[in-house]
Task: structure prediction
Amino acid sequence: MRNTAPKDAAELEALETREWLESLDYVLHSGGPARVSRLLRELANHAQRKGVKQPFTANTPYINTIPAAEEPPFPGSREIERRIKSLVRWNALAMVVKANKAEDGIGGHISTYASAATLYEVAFNHFFKGKADNHDGDIIFFQGHASPGIYARAFVEGRIPAEKLENFRRELKPGGGLSSYPHPWLMPDFWEFPTVSMGLGPIMAIYQARFMRYLEDRGLKKRSDSKVWAFLGDGETDEPEALGAIALASREKLDNLIFVINCNLQRLDGPVRGNGHIIQELEAVFRGAGWNVIKVLWGSEWDPLLDKDKTGLLVKRMGEVVDGEYQKYAVESGAYVREHFWGKYPQLLEMVKHLSDEQLKKLTLGGHDPVKVHAAYNAAVTTTGQPTVVLARTIKGYGIGEAGEGKNITHQQKKLNEEELRAFRTRFGIPIADSEVAKAPFYRPPDNSPEVTYMLERRKQLGGFVPRRITTTEPFKADNLHDCFTEFEKGTEGRKASTTMVFVRMLAKMLKDKEIGDLIVPIVPDEARTFGMEALFRQVGIYSHAGQLYEPVDMDTLLYYKEAKEGQILEEGITEAGSMSSFIAAGTAYATHGINTIPFFIFYSMFGMQRIGDLVWAAGDSRTRGFMLGGTAGRTTLAGEGLQHQDGHSHQFSLAVPNLVSYDPAFAYEIAVIVEEGIRRMYVNGESIFYYITVMNEPYEMPPMPAGVREGILKGLYRFKASEKKDSKLKAYLLGSGAILPEVIKAAKMLEEQYSVAADVWSVTSYQELYREGHAVERWNRLHPDEAPRVPYVTQCFAGSEGPIVAASDYVKALPDAIDRWLPRPLVSLGTDGFGRSENRAGLRDFFEVDCRFVVLATLNALLREGKLDAAVVKKAIKDLNINSEKPNPATS
Result:
């Protein structure tokens, strides 16, 4: 009789495992997946109670998330869609190749779109919704380096002429061209969002999805099934912004958000994780953050092999191979793959013995299989309660063969020789003759061809073309706009107030306004109390999709922390990048949603331009509208905080953004004039500009608005106070801005009373506007030599003047120096060059040499240089003003 008992411990373990698996299969068959999940949880809990310590993992096996049996039927014509995709591939490649033949080194990217073509085409044909009468459309952040493919598709659709493709990356050629990447500033009817500064697309997409919910919850937009799609590369996820806000998406249950990560395992120089698994790493990160993760790794040809894998050995082998090896398999022969992938285990070699080396080489990856991609997208758009990320495995440069498919050099590949072009043409069946292929001609089939007919019909059914930027909002009616600002023209009538307090009061009034109140979007990164905004908590509430599920600890106070589903304030927490992304979402809503929301984003000025300058640049490119408020601004107004908090250079950064209008106002009426004009320019006139206004926390009396200064405030300069010493032989002109203007006013009084110098005081609200206007005038004069020259505004202001011109600001000296060339005499600049200190305001202004005493000294010294004063007078003034002549230089100490 045969002995059937187990022979050793290993056989016993295998028997036990089989019995457990059979039992689990029974539960699955009789109770379904939900019952299996509950049972596994109970088993895990039981094991933990018994002291079994299981290693944590957020990973699932290295296989597709959606089994083949659960894939929905593919709804389109796979053959026609394959031909369309081939046409787009060819034209994308031809565009880059032709551009670099015509202009060596002009650049462009072939490999990104080559790897992502299926990811995009399935979405274009079945998922991306356009803006139509009955649908708001999807919001799509296209991966920047894939732009040639998006242009190529628009060409085949008939939206972009071949002449534009000929001028790819040559925008200034006659007839115009196409921008290198998605840039709404350059192509305002096509692109919606700039994405090629890697990492910004993902974070902006998250906050766009949240802002869509904000609009819906506040009743400003009807609820819809619109989605926000963000396409990015696996290498891009190393950027902190790419993954830094993903917890917000799950916390807010943003099921309107879908990330598609093109995991071709390569970044610009080499493997993303050569010694690891980027897909598994990303799965763990996103699952840990609460996202729905869908892995699309293996194409349909792998399904029969996985069905035969009863022991799990194939799945085990898939998970063993590191990304660097997988990249190697992509460039090697089928024989190599057989030996090195399948050959590790004899059982696996046996599994594929019926397949030739060529068949093994052609086993498709999931990201190149339309059926697998469609199944993933279908699951993504139907998921509720959480955002979804699709991790799609592809090969970088897929289809370009020996020219770089799967190789480390493929990201930089711009050219193909004739043989490589011919191979690509043949592989994708493009009807171009051998005699023409070297020219890389564009190819578009006739309008009535099956391909064009099909793709146009699909876009019609989905609501229209994408990408497409449409602005449909009506301009504001500004009849009563001025009413929000009139009280600030009167000053504070003896009371002290900071410009921050003035702004908050102004914001509160705007929030109550019948015309614009509901459209105001206050945004703050967890500093509302710092800026004195807590009164707004009760007035309009803090937005929370979940409402307020708890009783706040300060419920018994008047200004308690009030969260509400219809709340108006976006209290973003400690994230300037997230807040700026919300600002962009709100500031582009006029185009994205057809709603004229007016964002006011207030933040520590030091943590604005310096920290999130890249997002500010993206805001400009996006044609964002709204107001950025740099709070606690200036190097000397923020007492005690010290070096890292004291801003003396944000206006230098803001000057570099072409459509950012910057002001450093000192008085309430200046802020009122600037904000009112900003709303008028952006929301009545429709200008694609946005504003940066610095406000301070130092309280002082706000004077009433002098007559006739409105134009000067907006241009950047006006005379605040003329000297009363009309008969004085010594004259000077003192320029002050922001927090230092009160010091300049004091200096003028001291000069008049103690040194008989007649000093006019000028308020400089914007050196940037003066700088831009001056250069614009110079340019006009240069281009029109036969016409009467124009005169810069700064020059006009000081025409016929005599005496030194001294400027003092709370910013680096380079800021006032920017207007020196248009002044009749060299400018004497005082500023805050150098690192800050922890001190009170008086100490800081003494340290940086910008208080009234140093303004007086600078004026007297300038008069000395003009030969109008004796050195003894200046030396005595230094002593009288208690100035240490040997003090360290603040710029370097």
Summary: The mean pLDDT is 94.
